[in-house]
Specification:
Blueprint lengths: L16 E3 L2 E3 L6 E2 L1 H10 L18 E3 L17 E2 L3 E2 L6 E7 L3 E6 L3 E3 L1
Antiparallel strand pairs: 1-2, 2-3, 4-5, 4-9, 6-7, 7-8
Length: about 120
């Protein structure tokens, strides 16, 4: 294990090694260029995208693309529900949108279940 090499971007293994111009992870087999990894880190500071790839920002309005079950609710959130004034957060378990939904109150959603309106 070389202390100067970054961990694997796929599985976070610390046992990466160099082979020519590539870095290789022996645990998952992922190969990447260290120059490409550095430029990607600088360009994408916490970019959150919706289900079709649009970049989301604080204050956007989004539409739920599939019906969601909600604990304590008999109906859940139906596909097509508009959610206004979202806030992007570093949530738990992939829930990166903080919002208020009419009839349900404050909750967090995953960006993969919404589309920018």
């Amino acid at each position: 294990m070389n202390e100067n090499l970054p961990p694997c971007p796929e599985c976070s293994s610390a046992y990466t090694y160099e082979m020519g111009v590539l870095l290789i992870c022996p645990e998952c087999g992922h190969e990447w260029s260290p120059a490409a990894a550095e430029s990607a880190d600088g360009d994408q500071e916490n970019v959150i995208r919706d289900s079709v790839g649009n970049v989301l920002a604080d204050g956007d309005t989004v539409t739920v693309v599939k019906s969601l079950k909600v604990k304590g609710s008999a109906t859940g959130i139906k596909a097509g529900t508009k959610v206004r004034n979202i806030r992007l957060v570093d949530g738990v378990d992939g829930h990166d949108i903080d919002c208020k939904i009419d009839g349900f109150g404050a909750m967090q959603l995953k960006s993969g279940v919404v589309r920018k309106a």
